[in-house]
Automatic annotation (TrEMBL):
<comment type="similarity">
    <text>Belongs to the D-isomer specific 2-hydroxyacid dehydrogenase family.</text>
</comment>
<dbReference type="InterPro" id="IPR029753">
    <property type="entry name" value="D-isomer_DH_CS"/>
</dbReference>
<dbReference type="GO" id="GO:0008465">
    <property type="term" value="F:hydroxypyruvate reductase (NADH) activity"/>
</dbReference>
<dbReference type="InterPro" id="IPR006140">
    <property type="entry name" value="D-isomer_DH_NAD-bd"/>
</dbReference>
<dbReference type="GO" id="GO:0030267">
    <property type="term" value="F:glyoxylate reductase (NADPH) activity"/>
</dbReference>
<dbReference type="GO" id="GO:0051287">
    <property type="term" value="F:NAD binding"/>
</dbReference>
<dbReference type="Pfam" id="PF00389">
    <property type="entry name" value="2-Hacid_dh"/>
</dbReference>
<dbReference type="Pfam" id="PF02826">
    <property type="entry name" value="2-Hacid_dh_C"/>
</dbReference>
<dbReference type="InterPro" id="IPR036291">
    <property type="entry name" value="NAD(P)-bd_dom_sf"/>
</dbReference>
<protein>
    <recommendedName>
        <fullName>Glyoxylate reductase/hydroxypyruvate reductase</fullName>
    </recommendedName>
</protein>
<feature type="domain" description="D-isomer specific 2-hydroxyacid dehydrogenase catalytic">
    <location>
        <begin position="9"/>
        <end position="325"/>
    </location>
</feature>
<dbReference type="InterPro" id="IPR050223">
    <property type="entry name" value="D-isomer_2-hydroxyacid_DH"/>
</dbReference>
<keyword id="KW-0560">Oxidoreductase</keyword>
<dbReference type="GO" id="GO:0005829">
    <property type="term" value="C:cytosol"/>
</dbReference>
<feature type="domain" description="D-isomer specific 2-hydroxyacid dehydrogenase NAD-binding">
    <location>
        <begin position="117"/>
        <end position="295"/>
    </location>
</feature>
<dbReference type="InterPro" id="IPR006139">
    <property type="entry name" value="D-isomer_2_OHA_DH_cat_dom"/>
</dbReference>
Amino acid sequence: MRPVLLMKVFVTRRIPPEGRAALAQAADCEVEQWDSDEPIPVKELARGVAGAHGLLCLLSDRVDKRILDAAGANLKVISTLSVGVDHLALDEIKKRGIRVGYTPDVLTDATAELAVSLLLTTCRRLPEAIEEVKNGGWTSWKPLWLCGYGLTQSTVGIVGLGRIGQAIARRLKPFGVQRFLYTGRQPRPEEAAEFQAEFVSTPELAAQSDFIVVACSLTPATKGLCNKDFFQKMKETAVFVNISRGDVVNQDDLYQALASGQIAAAGLDVTTPEPLPTNHPLLTLKNCVILPHIGSATHRTRNTMSMLAANNLLAGLRGEPMPSELML
């Protein structure tokens, strides 16, 4: 019998067990993995992907022309363990006829839960309060001490009313939010109807909202969207939350807005760069809560993501429909 030619698959990180098991059980694939929880160096990525038929990567892996050239003509499928694809050189990938799989929908609920948690943590000043308990600052009950801002009768503005934006609004509605605003490329009347959300311009959203949650994709149009002009339009009592991508925000402008009291507070689950250097000015501010990009970090969600990423990869390699393919 003629020996079966195995398809080479390169995985850029240790992934959750369900996805790892699915790849291990694929008899038609030879899987090589960068065996670390830390990001793969570019040189190692270029070496590992050489001659590969399939690549399973993460959002921290920049798959650009250099990596695609290193892979060579065998590469048929790229599967990313993320819903975002701004780390992929899509024009170059499309030119080469490579299929792309991604993981939408499965992380929507976990990310929306985190967004609401971050919003409440920031607006009610929980990290400050916890620190006061630990350092002896808690002396007695004081009427004005550690007062924050509540959601009841508030106006919430959502930048990007996609799947995650809608899931955030759905969770915030029972808190007694009076009014929802949203902005994006175009009105989405069917999606907005559930929350009676009003489509407004970005400057209007900044000016009218008590709380702003950024949940849009990173595109050339949204890069740096939240900048000095945006923050200047916001209320002094407003709270800003970003769970999308760090590059949507001009962090220097955000620092100035927070340090000067132009806005009340900010909560970030994403930054530029990631990880944020420990000496970054934003980390010196009491009114800025920063998390290490944990929006989808539940055991169930990460396992589901890894399984979907593996199934996308295997289906693509076998010329079958992917469960979640990004149509280029």
